[in-house]
Amino acid sequence: MSLSSILSADAIDSAIKDCQAPDSFCPKKFFQLCGLTKKSPQDVKKVFGILDNDASGFIEEEELKFFLQRFTPGARVLTDKETKAFLCAADDDGDGQIGVDEFQAMVLS
């Protein structure tokens, strides 16, 4: 399954273009622009599964760096500052990784 089977290619392009400059990535804005905030909790869980590259059940800091590339292969890597801010914003239990429930809460809140 690919992200474009859940989200429109145009919406993904728009979200990627919005955060091309280093340190301009905002997870909440990205989720809105790509249309993820309008999806069902089930679809958000499917997206999480795609983003969880190693299928560990968590999105770790190393996977977060390549977050944009999971949407568009040629996209930039997140900066360390963006990666840490994203992790802090979503990691409710402070274990250093984002679980599916934390991801869903961030996207849909």
From TrEMBL:
Domain named EF-hand: residues: 39-74, 78-109
SMART domains tied to this protein: EFh
UniProt-listed SUPFAM superfamilies: EF-hand
GO cellular component, one term: cytoplasm
Gene3D superfamilies noted in UniProt: EF-hand
Keywords for the protein's UniProt record, in alphabetical order: Calcium, Metal-binding, Muscle protein, Repeat
InterPro entries reported in the protein's UniProt record: EF-hand-dom_pair, EF_Hand_1_Ca_BS, EF_hand_dom, Parvalbumin
PROSITE patterns, per database record: EF_HAND_1, EF_HAND_2
GO molecular function, one term: calcium ion binding
Transmembrane segments: none
Binding site for Ca(2+) 2: 91, 93, 95, 102
A Pfam family of this chain: EF-hand_7
Binding sites annotated in the UniProt record for Ca(2+) 1: 52, 54, 56, 58, 63
PANTHER family, per the entry: ONCOMODULIN-2-RELATED, PARVALBUMIN ALPHA
Task of the protein: In muscle, parvalbumin is thought to be involved in relaxation after contraction. It binds two calcium ions.
Protein family membership: Belongs to the parvalbumin family.
Protein name: Parvalbumin
Biological source species: Gasterosteus aculeatus aculeatus
